[in-house]
Amino acid sequence: MRAHRALTALVAVLLAVLPNTAQAAESYPDPQPITGQQIIHDPTVIHLKSGGYVAYSTGGVIGARLSKDRVQWDDAGNAFAQPPSWWYEYNDTGDPWAPDISYRDGRYWLYYAVSSWGTNHSAIGVATSRSGLPGTWTDHGKAFTSETTDTWNAIDPAVVRADGRLWMTFGSYWTGIRMVELNPKTGKAVLGATVTHLATRPDAPYAVEGPYIVKHGRYYYLFASYDACCAGVNSTYKIRVGRATTIKGPYVDSKGTPMLEGGGDLLLAGHGRYVGTGGESVFRDRGQDWLAYHYYDAEDAGTPKLGLNHLSWTKAGWPKVF
Question: Which domain holds residue 59?
Fold first, then answer.
């Protein structure tokens, strides 16, 4: 590990060259201590109506974890017993990525992506369940797709309601983050819906993905993962955020730089053993907002693990983790 003096010097340099870096690495909070099955990637978490918590993630046939207290987490198998047959159109192993769970109209809704590394021949699927528990999901097929002729990539879905309408953000590389309107009855993209561009980077490969939108006060906040995941201790994932007064944007950071021009305040980055923080989602529990994400544990050979932190809001209306 680097000496403290060298780390301090490095942070000073980064602060000088990255104007949107709002917090020095030394100030990032560690995740809440948890026990049990900690291994996870791209977590989505919800407090179930029946009590307790479920987390779904990349891995398996949408891997599942259950908790009674948000501290002790237990392996609960998978959302599905086996992959739906159509998944194999997008990869040879029927491997799903980056799920998103939400609740509306008396049902839990699970969105997820199927694709292959390095291509935007991708699809986002949708399933429903009355309980939200693993093994109870009914798959409804494709909600939205992308092809190699498109300038976006249909992975990393996240659903948000705004002004009586239902929207899904998505995107990974391929010019960044997009959004499409969903039919609330089917949960699928509205036929002929416009694909709205929300965030990108100024240069290829446009390394921004994993969007998630939250409404707080009069603003919508767009969280996204920047830089590279999936490389263990060499991962450079970090979470940035911007906000807008309307769901379609434009989203800007605290300095007014649009996220379509590479803006975004740095909310959480790797520090100490917690490398490559990203794959984030936000859930509400007993009146408190929580940030869920994965990190790569530098003290455990870069194993991806679940990170949970309180998400608070400053007087100026910007999110802060603690």
Answer: 4-321
Q: What is the CATH number of the domain that holds 125?
A: 2.115.10.20
User: What is the phi/psi pair of residue 89, to 5°?
Assistant: -70, -20
Sign of CA dihedral 8, 12, 18, 19: positive
Q: Strands (DSSP E) along 50-206, which ranges? A: 53-57, 63-67, 72-78, 96-104, 107-114, 122-129, 138-146, 158-162, 165-170, 177-182, 196-199
Tokens describing residue 11: 């942070």
How far apart (Å, rounded) are the C-alpha atoms in residues 15 and 280?
Answer: 23
CA distance 63 to 304: 13
Q: Is the pTM of this model over 0.85?
A: yes
Q: Is 297 a catalytic residue?
A: no
pLDDT in tens, 147-156: 999 999 999 9
Catalytic residue among 95, 139, 209, 280: 209
- DSSP, res 302: T
209 catalytic residue (yes or no): yes
